[in-house]
Each structure stands twice: as structure tokens, then as C-alpha cells.
Amino acid sequence: MKNYIYGKNSVLEALADRYPIKKLYLLDSLKNKEIKFSNIAYLKKAELDKLVNGNHQGYVAEIDAFRYDDIGIIKKNNPKIVLILDHIQDPQNFGAILRSCSVFGVSYIIIPKDRSVEVTPTVLKISSGGFKNIKIIKTNSLLEAIKYLKQNGFWIYGSALNKEAKKLSDTSFSFPVGLIVGNEGSGISKTLLKESDEIIYIEQAPQAVQSLNVSNATSIFLYELFKQTK
């Protein structure tokens, strides 16, 4: 199975950053564009539509399968922040989270192997190139991954709204940080909340009728972490 990234911004940013692209597929009307790459095929829109299921804008790039990392890379590189995604399902959310991680300098994400969205062409497109410098670690057990982080000095923060939770605005983070954000429907599992050293939440207006979705909430958490690392 071939792997693709698509969309003008995602493809051009990958080219600019010399991301390893195997072949470039462009809309035939782009032949006069100055795109420097040795292996380009110009296709009709209908042919590009067969390659990817989404708005490619005339730009598709074939890449190698996304390479996931092992959790040992965290001990090796000692990052200040690791983001833990508890069974995120929506590729749009995952892509938006990758983009936020890129903006706020978070380069390590842990996801579970089962019942979780993986890195797909849709995820890569939504990330708008944000995936390039991020290490994504797949684990058989988020619980064991969190225990590993704690053994290596991480303070674990779970994001949830309960009676034990502390306002994000009142939180002074203890680094290195492991931040857990939860599934779109059920949030963080009770097991992972129990393993958290501290539970935090984003304060909302009293008249708010619903909570933020996971990608928006994650952006706010990451921004606060970013401010406190400066």
C-alpha cells in the first residue's frame, strides 16, 4: 500500500524541508510552476482523485510509510514535554494536534497501538506539515508508558473536569511534563486519571453549553506549557 501526503501547503512544505518524497504527482496545469524535484508525474484531476480521498489541490506526494518510534527515545533525548493521546479517534483532531505541537515546540507524542487513529494521509494533510519534526511513539499500554515516564522523572498531568481538578490558569507546571488528553467521547480513562499526579482543566464561561473539542483544548494546554518553558 502506497502512502501519500496531499494538499498544496503540506506538499510544498515537505519539499522545502527536504522531507523524503519518493514521487510527486501534480495536476497537469501546474507544469509551468517552478517546482524543483527530479521525479514528477503530471496527471489529470481524475487521476489524482484516484490516488487520495480528499482535497489535494493538485498536489500529491508519495512517501515511505510513517515511521513510529520506540519509547526508549524519550530517555535518550530527555524532552521537556511529552503529549499522551488516550485513544483519539478522529484523524482531523489528530492532524490539528500535530499542527499545534509543531507551533508550540512539542516533539514527542505517545499513542496506543489499538483503538486509536494512526498517521494517515488525512492526518498529514490537516497537520499542514506539522508532522515533520515530531516523534510519534506507539505503545501496547498507555499505562505502562506513563509509568515509564514517571520512572524517568516526568510529572503527569491529566486533563479532566472533576472535583480534584485545578484550573489551568492556576497551574505551575513541574517539568518534565507528561500531559494526557482524552478520547473525543469519553475523555481520559479512569485508570490513566488515577495514575496522574495532577488533574487540570480549562476554565470556561458560566454560560458555556458544551466543552471544547480535544484538538482545541490541547492547543490551549500546549500554549500554557510553551509560556512556562520560556
UniProtKB/TrEMBL annotation:
Pfam family, one: SpoU_methylase
Similarity annotation: Belongs to the class IV-like SAM-binding methyltransferase superfamily. RNA methyltransferase TrmH family.
Record domain RNA 2-O ribose methyltransferase substrate binding: where: 4-69
Entries under SMART domains matching the protein: SpoU_sub_bind
Family annotation (CDD domains): SpoU-like_RlmB
GO terms of biological process kind: methylation; RNA processing
Superkingdom of origin organism: Bacteria
Keywords: Methyltransferase, Transferase
Protein name per the record: tRNA/rRNA methyltransferase
Organism: Metamycoplasma auris 15026
